[in-house]
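Example record used in the benchmark description.
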Amino acid sequence: MKMIEKGKISAEQMAIMMYPVIVGTGIISVPAVTAKYAKNDLWISPIWASLLGFIVVYTAFQLHKLYPRETIIQYSEHILGRILGKILGFIYLIFYVQMNGGGIRIYGEFVTGAFLIKTPIIVVISTMVLVCVFAVRGGIEVLARVAQFFIPLYVFSMVIIIILILPELDLKKMFPILEHGLMPSMKGAIVPGGWFAEFILVSFLFPYLTDGEKGRKWGMISVFSVMITFIVTNFIILFLFGGTTSRYLYPLFTASQYISIADFLQHLEPIIMAMWVAGTFIKFSVVFYAIVLGTAQWLNLSDYRPIVFPLGFLTILFTIWGTPSKMVESEYNFIVFPVYSFFVQILIPLLLLIIAVLRKKKPGSDP
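Model output (structure tokens):
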């Protein structure tokens, strides 16, 4: 099978790239979404949600072992046949264009609502997509190096903000624990679970690892890192806002406004903004890379670079047409997407794995 992408990355770089794919947009809104159902137990919900991430990484790696040089777009055709495989590939591509468009729309709403109030949202969205387009044209190695540069700064900024906000925290606000049993925390895990399912994107990265045998290990480490990040974030927000957490649209951003040391070190919202922009840039670039690479493979092209700009324009259209209002955007992200994500990113790969294993055991089946 001819490889369109000539670049190679390490399993560790893959893990670093995948970390902001989930944390990028999730860290801003996950406490409010989780608190709506889990209340004081919102810190437990990421643990339940992460189970889906571990399942997805395991499934993707098992499929990778069966088809080591192919992405999910390619081996779907081997497993299901050409026609059904093409249909499934098209579903994945549309899903990721829609997902990326929705994520960029959330980014645009946040930036224009909190900072650039007079700037048209289309300007904010277009500039982000343009930067992602240039990053993806550089190839997978460029994406990996950009992620390696930004993610340490991202984590360091978050740690500094957590340290500065410690004086405002009240640990008593986490009680009572499990007042209504485990069910509320499980309900709070539904939306984050849809985000953890995005780890199926590793199926687009596994074929280009220099140390493919470490893919599962580093994939699991990335899932665990995301889980810890969400748990810590939820704890901080819970200790600060308690039972009122669900009332804030962007709790972490609001929390940064509480930082004030000797009336000198305050108004650190721009740090949150810079941190979030860096994380979302990596997220959108990785998803956009999967879209571009997958489309080229679906169309049997020899190079993916000529379709980068057209697909970037299509992404911009989806950000505007796909979510015409804040209400539609909210309903899709918190009601439709978790279910949609479960079927496309968890159930279908599991079915593909089952069918592939059964076909491998059948004498005379395709390799």
